[in-house]
Amino acid sequence: MVNAEFFAALEMLEAEKGIPVDYMLDRVGQALITAYKRDNDGMTDNVFVEPDREKKTIRMYVRKTVVKAEDLYEPYEEITLEEAEEYKKNPMVGDIIDIEIPTKSFGRIAAQTAKQVIIQGIREAERGMVISEFESKEHEILTGVIARIDPRTGNAYLDVVSGGEKSEAVLASSEQVRGETLTEGQRIKVYLIEVRRGTRGPQVVVSRTHPGLVKRLFELEVPEIHSGVVEVKSIAREAGNRTKIAVMSNDENVDPIGACVGTRGARVANITGELGGEKIDIIKWSDDTAQFVSAALAPADVISTTLQGDNKSCRVIVPDDQLSLAIGKEGQNARLAAKLTGCKIDIAPASQGE
User: Fold this and answer.
1) Is the pTM of this model over 0.85?
2) What are the backbone dihedrals phi and psi of residue 253, each rounded to the nearest 5 degrees, phi first?
3) What's the pLDDT tens digit per position in 8-60?
4) What is the average pLDDT score of the chain?
5) Which residue among 45, 133, 239, 244 sits deepest, i.e. has the most Cβ atoms within 10 Å of its Cβ?
6) Segment 195-207 mean pLDDT
7) Nearest C-alpha neighbor of 220 from the set 172, 168, 171, 275
8) 261-269, long-range: CB within 8 Å, 24+ apart, which pairs?
9) Is 18 helix (H, G, I), strand (E, B) or coil?
10) Contact 9, 58 (CB under 8 A)
């Protein structure tokens, strides 16, 4: 099988789609063997293919053992001494002979089988590259365009591209921000949760509610976080309403809160805009739990914070007129502060402080 155009096509496939020539040659070899076995029922695993990229040839052989004529039981695996003389000079019983199979002798059905295997190989390679590319972007931000929205489930399906690979991403209704309106053709940023391997190809699962989305947006917007000067220590989020993010600086000359807020609040405003107006509280992290809890209850003022004996709960005293602010609507502020700090918080007004 000599075909320079065939090898040129494989090299073009590698250049355009990144599918290695050697991978496709292996698939072609499998296809030829499958086709040959289809036309020769009873053939075992003694058929092999040898591609040669330099000579641009693909040759197929059947390996047989030389036996006496009266001992011939497996014609697909054995060859008589008389027949072996056609392929080897002075053959002996027990010799192994590789007999070349002319690929031009294949039937139409066999050729179709080979074609199907090759096409399947291309699809599998492309699918593998898509999976590999998107798996490398797990827990990162992707920008996608909403292709369609399922009216029955509310799930949104996005076209996403990464590293030149295109795939469909699923934004389940449970991962959408409550109250946020999505429309077909809309471009949005999403957080890549995981890539699932399915029978119909890779399924990219994304989210708009994951706290990681806020963290990655800050990394994109704040150079000090991207460089590591400012570090995000923890995040607590109730998507669509409010997020609290705790930050610290590894450089005493850099204010972590100021870096995140930006000039005239430009940086945090960009993030808030991307999140549809979601409020963001930026808290300075502290290894002093009581001090950290006090800061986490912002925007409420705190009179005192006392860490309890179990080191997992705090007693917080706030001015009477700040109690509702500290607790927040439906307990949201206190709930987010507890998530952010990992500490159980008991809030009391100053009038009941004792």
Assistant:
1) no
2) -90, -5
3) 878 887 777 777 888 888 888 888 887 777 777 766 678 888 888 888 888 88
4) 87
5) 244
6) 80
7) 275
8) 262/221, 262/222, 267/221, 267/222, 268/221
9) coil
10) no
pLDDT of 199 strictly over 70:
no
As a 3-state breakdown, the chain gives helix, strand, coil percent values, each rounded to 5, of: 40, 30, 30
What distance in Å separates the CA atoms of residue 74 and residue 304, rounded to the nearest whole number? Answer: 92
CA distance 133 to 277: 32
- Calculate what percentage of the chain has a pLDDT beyond 70: 93
C-alpha 67/C-alpha 94 separation (Å) is: 6
238: Cα separation from own chain's centroid: 25
DSSP string, 140-199: SEEEEEEEEE-TTT--EEEEEEETTEEEEEEE-GGGSPTT----TT-EEEEEEEEEEEET
Residue type, 225: I
Secondary structure element (H or E) that encloses residue 335, with its range: helix 332-341
Q: Are 271 and 221 in contact (CB under 8 A)?
A: yes
**CA distance to 101, 108, 117, 224, per residue, from 1 (Å):** 10, 16, 18, 60
Place of tokens 């920008």: 143
Both structure tokens of 85: 């003389």
- Give dist(CA 306, CA 343) in Å, integer: 12
pLDDT at 109 over 80: no
| Two structure tokens written together for 306 | 């006392």
Task: Say what the pLDDT of residue 1 is.
Answer: 47
Rounded to an integer, what distance in angstroms lies between the CA atom of residue 86 and that of residue 338? 86
Confidence tier at 107 by pLDDT (50, 70, 90): low
CA distance 191 to 275: 12
Q: Tell me, what's the pLDDT at 111? A: 63
User: In b/e form, how buried is each residue of 277-288, taking b as 16+ CB within 10 angstroms?
Assistant: ebebbbbbbbee
